[in-house]
Amino acid sequence: MPKVIEGVLTAGGQRYAIVVSRFHSIITNRLLEGALDCLHRHGASDEEITIHYCPGAFEIPQVALPLAASKKFDAVICLGAVIRGETPHCDYVASEATKGIAQAGLATGVPVSFGLLTTDTVEQAIERAGSKQGNKGWDAAIGAIEMVNLFRAMKKSVKN
Ligand code: INI
Predict the structure, then answer these.
(1) Percent of the chain with pLDDT over 70
(2) SS (H, E, C) 123-142
(3) DSSP letter at 108?
(4) What's the 65 CA to ligand 1 centre distance in angstroms?
(5) pLDDT tens-digit series, residues 142-155
(6) How far is the CA of 57 from the centre of ligand 1 (A)?
(7) Confidence grade of residue 160 (pLDDT, cut at 50, 70, 90)
């Protein structure tokens, strides 16, 4: 049997930062609810969670990077909603937010999860923020929990 290294799904005793953008707050508030529900259900207490609000998705990486670099958090969960308008503006916002969120994780070695909705319509965003397509905030939180525990398991495995 090969050796398997994986992350368990427990969040107690860890520190989570959430970055959530206010733009389309009707949607992002629901993503936040989903992420908090997930963290709580997996054992995190309110004292272990810090929520940071920023204006829009474009700003998420500007907040996520210093939070991850501070090493005060085991993971950073990024939540936002980019909804297509009549111009390509949203494409630039989504692209920079996506690249920046990925870069925050890669540059710091701290798990940074991606809970950014990019949809054509408000309806599609609602469906993914606690309606029939689930809640992408919840998904981003469970991804962060798994990565925190995977990194811990990897550290132990490398030592042995
Ligand atoms: N910000 C979003 O979070 N979602 C959007 O859909 C969006 N659109 O399409 O304009 C958006 N724009 C604001 C942007 O993120 C910045 O906050 C703003 O440009 C100030 O820097």
Answers:
(1) 100
(2) HHHHHCEEECCEEHHHHHHH
(3) H
(4) 18
(5) 999 999 999 999 99
(6) 6
(7) confident
Pocket of ligand 1 from Cβ distances under 6 Å: 21, 23-24, 55-59, 80-83, 85, 89-90, 93
The C-alpha atoms of residue 34 and residue 18 are separated, in whole angstroms, by: 12
Q: Pick from 32, 5, 27, 30: which is nearest to 17 by CA?
A: 32
- How far is it, in rounded angstroms, from Cα 65 to Cα 152? 21
Identify the residue whose C-alpha is closest to ligand 1 atom 17.
Answer: 56
Nearest residue by C-alpha to atom 8 in ligand 1: 90
Rounded-to-integer distance, Cα 74 and Cα 103, Å: 16
Cα distance between residue 89 and residue 52, in whole Å? 24
Q: Helices 25-41 & 136-159, crossing angle to 10 degrees?
A: 40
Secondary-structure percent of the chain, ordered helix, strand, coil, rounded to 5? 50, 20, 25
> Is CATH 3.40.50.300 what the domain over 25-149 is classified as, yes or no?
no
Token pair 């490398």 in the structure block, residue: 158
